[in-house]
């Protein structure tokens, strides 16, 4: 898609072009799943993340006196420097740090005035000490803001990110330590910058398997006093798809902090977020008595693990208030007992018993690269189809000045009080949450039912999933716009996916509406209350709050605000479905001015189409085994539809249908594209190609012959044409490919299934006298192959085409083409336009790579070239004459006798026919005497053109192998050169090699020019037009 995007860059701005630019840009964006990792200091979060990623020295860990003090997000390195370890450090602003220092000084001043049981704040002291050392003691605000303290981090003052690029994880870890961790036990002062850090993003190479679409975030437990850090913390918590609570196994159930973290954040990642699972991870399971024997140690560890898991689940089930926030799927809470040390050393446990592999598998499932790929391919396929189609808490019990400070701070901070200090782990007080809690409890159950994070989809999601434009039913009625309908189908899927994401995002805001509305209603009251000072100010603040709540209907307003948000959500969904799909329909079905599009996206379209079929087909189709009932002459199979599994029974009799040539996809330079309209379930055969399709229902099958890629075949060789097959309705369930084997019991035949440049060999279900039958799960490229070393004779055909020699109607050339029987005649006729097909007995039996000669009798002055030719068993889309009979005079001749002689069997006749000469000759066009065939060209002018535009041709010819095929068939280039050209990696390299080969002489250069005009006339036309200008 990047190539397509680059082609759009220079195009003029139109409504459709801008629309497609936006679609491609949106396709590249990736919303990642967030895993929030919480835990007490020393629980081993950093060590755990390192072990899961296989990076022992990525996040700084292991020092007992140090702890991670900032938010760290770890993701896969998807940049151009994808082999490097990258750290991006985002700082708070200089203004925010000054405000934080001012807040610290205000707290110190307040405590100095109120000496009643005031405690020094450990957090504040630690920040000052870490950044300033002894210089911070007794310094003023201005002294602490002096720029000399920030000399080593100019990025802080410039408000830009500081970036480290390192070759190893250990090097990166060493560089970021002072930005991530507080170290209270170091004897010497080394400036630490973590108090200024807002967040650190670490990008890890070679981790796409786990982190391509996932971000691991190491989060402090209770937010931050700094406003910007706190907002980022809340954003991360609210966006968590999964939450990991990490705790030392020895204190998993007794330690209060882990459970307090869970309790204090549950409203943010529950109904107010999008968390779909909680994992309680018990670490350090290897921490047992050293005197245990290895076998005893393993038993002891595993026994304690099972006991702890049960205890954690029991304790979680007792948290009634906490559990109310979730709809409670069976696997919503998972408990893991892990040992990072044992995973690395395997002293007592094998790796699988450390449960680190389970956490890695958890991330892989969340990463879900296949679904992301499916979404990308579906979107890209829709865009390319449109382009291609257009071109064809509680305050009771507090007393005294301490309580006064709480209420004062609460009013100053809009109803929120965040306690500081490590000595007493107190819960945050949020008056707005407390006021809204009575309403939230009343709506919680209904809210979870309509907006579940896990388990069932909910009624709103079900309505979105059920909505459809039903494009499948339109394919048969409107075949000319099938590509446009494919685009609309992918647009519908993409829009529904986006609406589901919108639903997740908006429901978080809706859930918080009650609290936010009350906060907004109380804002002016908080400001007034915070201004009360002096004697009895505490009482006056409380009275102010009570009076405002009593006389202002804040709860009614909150209710109306939430109802308004729900109505807006409904209108948003309806409007998106109506407007976006209407826009897509207008732009795709009413589009014009296709000249503004890129020259050709056929290559990209076909590649993306195969990817789409591979990804979508395997998920939407169920394997089945048709069963033949000999009494009723029917075939029965089971199929999967949108309404579940269904049994389909069809007659074994085959209905012959004439295909339609899809004119907009067929030119004289391109093989015909066929459409077979199958009206119902059953077996239907194409009268032109002899392909048979078993249909589970009505559908249009679109197919064409295409080129085999010899690099995929190895020791196999084609045994039939390669067909590109599609069915928009996905109703083809079995394919019957025509073969040309004389013996149906020949077990050398296999079916090649080619998708995305890879070939899968499929064993046939059955081989009949005429066809090889194979069950299919999704459509792409199918063809028959056999062992290259097999020389068994095959059913063949001799095809005759008569054409005039230039402007001389009395002189004719009879082209004699030897082909396997399963090459469709219509394909050969398409390439022989301008010639007359002579219908005669064509059947014979020939040996692959056998030598044959042609004898022409009863016609004087005739000559046959070559004297001997090889039966090449050819299935390329370009069919060239094996022999040519030059008939210089036909007057007075009634019949022509032709015989095919087997040179390997003493010229034994293997085919002969008598052709009357009274057939209707082809019409001669005086301007172009041979329409549809090659025009007569000037060899000197052709050679001069090639010499002049060699450099341009290297860049402009998109697929050179078609030209190379023709030159090789005409013996203009040798086998070795042909193989070298095919093995070149790019089209430019292939063209350079080919042009080097044609420099040798005028004949081969002229042959190249003719092949160029035949395959890419527009390239020649454009170059000549540019030269004329």
UniProtKB/TrEMBL annotation:
Domain FIIND, residue spans: 652-929
PROSITE patterns: CARD, FIIND
Localization (cell): Cytoplasm, Cytosol
Gene Ontology terms, MF aspect: GTPase activity
GO CC entries: cytosol
Signal peptide residues on this chain, from the entry's feature table: none
Keyword Thylakoid assigned: no
InterPro entries xrefs: CARD, CARD8/ASC/NALP1_CARD, DEATH-like_dom_sf, Dynamin_N, FIIND_dom, Nuclear_GTPase_SLIP-GC, P-loop_NTPase
Source taxon at top rank: Eukaryota
GO biological process, one term: inflammatory response
Pfam families registered for this protein in UniProt: CARD, Dynamin_N, FIIND, UPA-FIIND
Coiled coil: none
CARD domain ranges (all copies): 945-1027
Keyword set, alphabetical order: Cytoplasm, Immunity, Inflammatory response, Innate immunity
PANTHER family referenced in this protein's UniProt entry, alphabetically: NUCLEAR GTPASE SLIP-GC
UniProt-recorded name of the protein: FIIND domain-containing protein
Organism, scientific name: Hucho hucho (huchen)
